Amino acid sequence: MKKRKCQGCKELKDADSMYKITKEYKSNDIYFNPNSKILGRSAYVCKNNNCIKLMLKKKTLKNALKINDSSKIECILLNIIKGQ
Ligand SMILES: [Zn+2]
After folding, report:
1. Number of domains in the chain
2. What is the mean pLDDT of each run of 10 residues along the chain (84 residues)?
3. Ligand 1 centroid, distance to 38 Cα (angstroms)
């Protein structure tokens, strides 16, 4: 199993059990990337509200993906939290 660091709790977890968020290497657009079909710099977060909230609060996604504006993907993540 591939282990990846969660951008919320910072623990190493199985990559298959996490959300993979990728900055596409040409367009620099941000995508959810469950099948790893999109190439680019990626960050991972556990599929639970606490880790998503922590990631958004600490703004670690911006650093992990080296982006200035993560507002679009943050909106999607906030909707995921509300939907659970
Ligand atoms: Zn986590």
Report:
1. 1
2. 95 96 96 96 97 96 93 92 82
3. 22
Q: What is the pLDDT of residue 84?
A: 61
Q: How far apart are CA 72 and CA 26, in angstroms?
A: 18
Contact status, residue 8 vs residue 55, Cβ threshold 8 Å: yes
For residue 49, the CA-to-ligand 1 centroid distance in Å is: 9
Which CATH number belongs to the domain containing residue 66 in this structure? 3.30.1230.10
Instruction: Measure 64 CA to ligand 1 centroid, in angstroms.
Output: 14
Ligand 1 centroid, distance to 17 Cα (angstroms) = 10
| Cβ atoms within 10 Å of 42's Cβ, excluding its own | 17
